[in-house]
């Protein structure tokens, strides 16, 4: 029998996990199927592959990454660590718990950069259309080589969709927004907070984008940061200059009216209104239609498409766990494909889906949701040879992280956590997040002498009232 | 014989011209094929259908329009007027020669809004993939209804590609650009110049985008406007505060170095670096690959795809003439499809293409290029029942327009031209372009009393040295 051909669409963290899963089996002596990954960017890493462009990329494709220059992890790295490739192994020494983007990219790249898996990726290649031939149960995948504009089609036995769901912004209408004269875009197109210095900033939304861009804008010296919520406020103990208001009702030029009757003028508006599940290369009977939820309908064990069980999704959930969950999913999907794990019948899968959906209905808050996702991962890992890790302890880390944020949204990233993989405690970083203005890998891994400027700054910095955005010598309202 | 089915992809000015061409034949009593247009936006008008969003639209699709709120026509309307639906007919009275965007949208909408052609358009519908079945010489067109996420496929006998080529930005790399901390995007994502007030603005490019956004930024009170050219400067007599520099070499944060050794600091950078021909829904053997040129290779008479003569392109040329050229193309394509015009053999088409390419090689400058495009249009109209118009006079209008710009880039839009369709002279507008800050249709068509503010402003305004961006009471460097 000829080897099966597997198409992986996307080589971000999920697609890389799939590549690694197959490579891991091959390294252990197994014969693996022919695997080809298609990645529209020039390099892998997905979200973690920063693009200075916004909107449309150098090939005319929608820009994939929603990350900005100054982004640091907003959760402790101990909650996302690979169970089979630790931070200690990669960096050779403990690093802090909240690394900047480039450091995390280096980590996920490092796991696979010395293997042969990069040869399996067609970079700068966009998948244009997938057709399912039901008679033979195979797929024609049509792709475009973006560098030479050539389209080609070939047949695959299975398709793994790993394109993520934080790339296509959800950009709703607000009354009068077309009259707003200032900076206006979605968080997806946010590339750095430096330009928000001295600006009156409105962030529409009350989730991670608003929280993170909000404190980043504050850090970089925004004159004011207003966050507008629909269902409820985030409720952190915001520093002076940051506030939450209920949903905005309308724009009239630069003036925004809120549902509590207040009005404000703004210089910049960023829509932190979430993302769409979007798979423009899939016919609708193969395309997941879902909001951002931790257990999307139609995916057996969160990965097998009920409508066609040779189609798999990785990372389609809303995520507490990230990299290690993608691993658990990728290892399980690999084992299904290689016949190491048995796919239940459609009826059994439906029953399983209903069971887990019922459990999901019982989830009543963030702590519950973290535990639910931990149990989901435990179930997947149990079916594979991926190393089991202490999920109960990782849940505890997530809950402590949430506590840290409640205590101080500006300093939570300075706290170290202990790895459940190695037992080693994270390093304290040489510079606090609030004072660090150089987010590069080089600076992060350096052990700089404290400069006079930093000493001076630290002198006015206390854990409860950090100095707002004045590191570059800008005026501060309070100091 | 069953009626042929024709798919039109895109309902902007070119697609609307195709719809009008068929409707015009039907009105005259002919039986026309079944025509269906697919338009991803919620309304027609293409570029002229303003979207406040940038980058990605409400359905997760790339935003089509590259226009900004304050955009006015940058060429006289007398050079783009439909020969069979005049401005006088639409507005009932003479209007000025350079109307704002909304006024031009109203004009192209007005020609067809009272007909049945809107019923032939599937709005909010993106074409995902076109497959050519060579055995039967028919096309399967797969589309997605963006509102309900359903994909459907159906067969067509012919495909008219009318998606334009000023929608996918060309976003090249510049050394260090990822370190630029200010506003940074392509002209495609520019939505209004108000936010450039008091900013030091760099526009990379030396064509229409740079010219137009440059004077718009000046009008709205930019502190300085620098335009960077690759081949040569535009060379207008720029007002104080605007300058042209040769190509930039690199960014270091906010500082930009130019090839002549100069450096400048900027607050905002807009890439006016042009657009890509991009047809992500077409296999490469049907997709035009071209730069922006007035006679693209591979299109017989600028419209028939040599590789498959049941595929047509409208508006694929670089354009001096616009709306009336799209009409000439649409009428000719209609006549080919309806058998009113005969398609020469492939060999004859190749010979014709080579002839015109040879003529095109002889084009030596803008005046020549305008004349070349006029002759191209004359050739098309000669083959159809579209009303011939005085192309020599329109060439003269184009040349006068270029002269006007050379004389004063800030006042050329105030000059009236005479319609070759009706013989009537355009109105002088109630407010000069430089003083007009309300670009709405309502304001444009009104006959406002001059306000005190306007009088005061006009008092410091002379044709040669207009007051920079101080209409809103902002400080000016010179006044």
TrEMBL record, chains A, B:
Gene3D superfamilies: FAD/NAD(P)-binding domain. GO terms for molecular function: flavin adenine dinucleotide binding; N,N-dimethylaniline monooxygenase activity; NADP binding; trimethylamine monooxygenase activity. Keywords: FAD, Flavoprotein, Monooxygenase, NADP, Oxidoreductase. Its EC number is 1.14.13.148. InterPro entries: FAD/NAD-bd_sf, Flavin_mOase-like, FMO-like. The keyword Ribosomal protein does not apply. It comes from the Bacteria. SUPFAM superfamilies: FAD/NAD(P)-binding domain (SSF51905). Its cofactor is FAD. Residues 449-479 are annotated as: Disordered. This is Trimethylamine monooxygenase. It comes from Citricoccus muralis.
